Amino acid sequence: MHADTLGEVDGVELILSGLAFDGPDFARTPLVVDVSGAPGAGSSTMAAALAARFGVVARPVGQDRGDGPDHDRRLDDPADLLIRVIGAQARACDRAAIRAAEVPVVVVAAKADTRPDADRLAANASEDLACPVHPVSALPAAARITSADVDVLRSWAAAGVRVPESAAAFAAAAPDQGSAARLLALLGRAGLVESLAAVSTDPDLDAQALAVRLRQASGLDALVAPIAAASAEIARGRRVRRLSGLRLHAARGFDRVAVERRLAGERVR
Ligand SMILES: Nc1nc2c(ncn2[C@@H]2O[C@H](COP(=O)(O)OP(=O)(O)OP(=O)(O)O)[C@@H](O)[C@H]2O)c(=O)[nH]1
Ligand SMILES: [Mg+2]
Questions:
Q1: Model confidence over 112-139: pLDDT tens digits?
Q2: What SS3 state is found at 267?
């Protein structure tokens, strides 16, 4: 995990170790990110990877909010940022979600590892949406790999096990079907191929080093730059929401004098 400071914006510091906001009013509140996408686009996996990698609060937000554990967005706890997860190309629902967002949006083309032409597709989507689109392989990026997994991978590499195109063919060909299914679900096919190659070429590679290698290849860390670039807008959004909360408080008559004195000392930049 990094501990880099990404810079101070309006007295609010954005720190990469947990992309936390630091400042007089925020008391190191972590960044709150909503992650939305069409059903099955990969929002939950992306949210898990963002939380695991950066320590942010990442909430998968479904198309239809309010049903099920994935859809528990608290409307009184607004997000700082929206990560919009698209697939091979942008769809009408993606355009609508980006247009409707009230917070900065970073667009991510998920499951990049499943598309050999992921970079080209993301570039096309970027042109289409007129905003940057970042290809990310969230599944292998945040996979929790154990030393037992590395032992299995090493034994397969030594036995010359190859990963066929189809998962079913692999399950049939693998020496241990349980491990084959588990590692495929953990890493995805491309992540598995990459991991087998990595343990074959580096006899000292341990689970942690393998995880770092997969993460570095995943595109996840490339999201830091656009998030940092949005930090001034994020800070401003927090300030606006806080002030409107204070105004509401004053309008309702609670601590009116104290709140109005506080409002007089504040301004929205
Ligand atoms: N290979 C690969 N598979 C992925 C990746 N991200 C997600 N998946 C797989 O795609 C499937 C759907 O992923 P989810 O993250 O559950 O997608 P979702 O958009 O939250 O789906 P719903 O909540 O059901 O709408 C799962 O089987 C994931 O393991 C990725 O980066 N690479
Ligand atoms: Mg989901």
A1: 999 999 999 999 999 999 999 999 999 9
A2: coil
DSSP state of 22: E
CA 84, CA 36: separation in Å to the nearest integer? Answer: 5
Domain that holds residue 36: 5-141
What DSSP element (H or E) covers 52? Answer: helix 43-54
Out of 109, 141, 173, pick the residue that ends a domain.
Answer: 141
Q: How many domains does the chain have?
A: 2
- Pick out the chain residues at pLDDT < 70: 1-28, 63-77, 266-269
Q: Do 108 and 134 touch, CB atoms closer than 8 A?
A: yes
Atom of ligand 1 nearest to the CA of 190: 1
pTM score, two decimals? Answer: 0.85
CA angle (76 as vertex; 72, 82 as ends), nearest 5: 65
Q: What type of residue sits at position 34?
A: D
Examine residue 131 and state whether it is found in any structural domain, yes or no: yes
pLDDT at position 59: 94
Q: Which residues line ligand 1 (CB under 6 A)?
A: 37, 39-45, 60, 70, 110-111, 113-114, 137-139, 188
